Amino acid sequence: MKTYSVRTYRSDEQLPREQQLAWRIAEVATDPVAVSPEVTEMIINRVIDNVAVATASLSRPPVVAARGQAEAHPYSPGATVFGSQLRSSPEWAAFANGVAVRELDFHDTFLAAEYSHPGDNIPPILAVAQHTGKDGAALVRGIATGYEIQIDLVKAISLHAHKIDHVAHLGPSAAAGIGTLLGLPAETIYQAIGQALHTTTATRQSRKGEISTWKAYAPAFAGKMAIEAVDRAMRGQTSPSPIWEGEDGVIAWLLDGPSGRYEVALPEAGEAKRAILDSYTKEHSAEYQAQAWIDLARKLGAQHPELKDPANVEKIVLATSHHTHFVIGSGSGDPQKYDPTASRETLDHSVPYIFAVALQDGTWHHVDSYAPERAGRPDTVALWHKITTVEDPEWTRRYHSNDPAEKAFGGRVEITLTNGTTITDEIAVADAHPLGARPFARENYVAKFRSLADGVLPADEIERFLALAQRLPELSAAELGGLTVWTPGLPTPPRGLF
């Protein structure tokens, strides 16, 4: 990896294009380096993972609405839409599929200076591959680039510190991945990256307070914008430049300001794109920082059944990282995180709620654990309201550590019982994490797909997709068109403008 220092330049400093971050990324995207076997295998895993969580959300209102928008834009050749038999214009197909993938907040994650779900790169790159007649090998190359660029940006540049939503890293990464897929020149990719970033910067209010259905739409919109940016760039249209480093650019006005400086490491020429191997998926349908807490709660509930009864518990304190405390914990100051009538999206971002339910139920389900009747159960509400979080500097340090053996997303729990005794325990990473108790492997991804598709897809459709997806690198362009799922009887989309 080669590290580049990125800062704001005055207009009269004339930063050469070749020294701009967008150009450096475009150079990575055009590098013809081979995709390693282990990266290829992980890409297959994540394609299966994406379609698994999308399948489970096919009947959910945000996904039904997005599918309706895509179906209102039929196109030939176009791209496939999960749950539909129509092919749509690629940007709309990517949008609908992106909403389906993100709706349950159940796919892969990478956390560092910023947060991300790098699997959000897959829907736009897949849609363009299907539309343009690319084969499975080309798709693998494009996805490898998308993951690499997003994760490299996430390691270096914090967006949330300035209340900018993390999808601002997704627009550029998806544009770069599409550029690799299509074999575009660096000049075209450079222009597309600039447009994609410029059009996908937004505030984090979409993940604050009463969280709305837009949470699932935000990354899908970024993928859609990336496709449109590539289209315009291919037509010779240009973009704001330098997009990150300009005097009125992203760093100067949205991030650390004119004096800000970031150290961004990118692969050197000929260096394999391996960043996907640093990411990790979810065993549970909840915000990633809650994954380890679910596993710890399940363990404690089994070992100490008395903890399930709020009458036995005086208080539960989760000592954890800055992010967990302030984003999904009591440090957020959001009363909605303790509201039994809150939306699923809000409960998904409430670690006090999640810990209470996992402690009582000993399991976690993507539907049942969020059901209104589950959230409103009196004993759960009583227990839930006894749970708070605090930031622990050591867990914050471990959260930001660059050492994989140290990096942690959990924390330490101290439970004070009404009889005066205390129970303490801790967990660093989720069981499914690569360094966890049960790291996810191919069979786990396949099992996750089968579990989420059960009762949604016909049995033969489940087997068809799994057989096809596991042959991804060797798929022909025609076969790649089958990398989707369909089932009869889905809800009819509501009417809108289209």
TrEMBL record:
Extent of the signal sequence: none
The MmgE/PrpD N-terminal domain, residue ranges: 19-259
InterPro entries for this protein: MmgE/PrpD_sf, MmgE/PrpD_sf_1, MmgE/PrpD_sf_2, MmgE_PrpD, MmgE_PrpD_C, MmgE_PrpD_N
Domain MmgE/PrpD C-terminal: start-end pairs: 284-472
PANTHER family in the record: 2-METHYLCITRATE DEHYDRATASE, 2-METHYLCITRATE DEHYDRATASE-RELATED
Family that this chain belongs to: Belongs to the PrpD family.
The name this protein goes by in its record: MmgE/PrpD family protein
UniProt lineage: Bacteria, Bacillati, Actinomycetota, Actinomycetes, Micrococcales
